[in-house]
Amino acid sequence: MSAEVITETQQRFLRAILEQIPLERMAELHRFAPIRQGGSETGLAVFATWPQEPSVEGVADVAEPEVDSATNDVESADTPARPARVRHTVYTARYHLVLKGPDRGSWALDIREEADAPLVTVDAVVRGVQRRTGDMAEVERMTPEQLAVAVSNTPWQGSE
């Protein structure tokens, strides 16, 4: 889906997300293929944002001392601390667009904060959504740069 043209509705969806979450905070976005059914279209995206204030997990001011099993001596606390993992806020965004009938053109958007987790968790969330929906089609992963191009008025140009 990465070299595919972004439709007006998908562009509208991405712009609506960026009205609530600034592009500068976006870490990555995973866009699922829209589903058309019964005169309406529904779309889904899972995205992660950088924290407004840096927050990390797994960092200690002083590393836990290790015990030498041969002598039972406690090693110096000068051992470096474990590496930090930045926690991102993970969101889901959904839209519903009525295509036919008296409510034609009505639009609904729902963005929900789902988790506070390391970025690697987003891939697991995307796979879980695919499993639950039974949709094993490729999900498009978008970087902030790709997202900026997608919402611009410049025609989408995939990498070749």
Can you describe this structure?
The protein has 160 residues and is α+β, with helices and mostly antiparallel strands. The chain has a domain of 110 residues. Helix content is 22%, strand content 31%. Strands 1, 2, 3, 4, 5, 6 and 7 form a 7-stranded antiparallel sheet that branches.
Outline the fold blueprint.
Blueprint lengths: L7 H13 L5 E6 L3 E3 L2 E10 L6 E2 L27 E14 L8 E12 L1 H14 L6 E3 L1 H8 L9
Antiparallel strand pairs: 1-3, 1-7, 2-3, 3-5, 4-5, 5-6
Secondary-structure element series: HEEEEEEHEH
- The assigned structural class equals alpha+beta
Could you name the ranges where pLDDT drops below 50 across 5 or more consecutive residues? 58-67, 71-83
Largest sheet: 7 strands, antiparallel
The outline comes out as globular
What is the gyration radius calculated from CA atoms?
21 Å
Mean pLDDT: 78
Q: Separation of termini? A: 13 Å
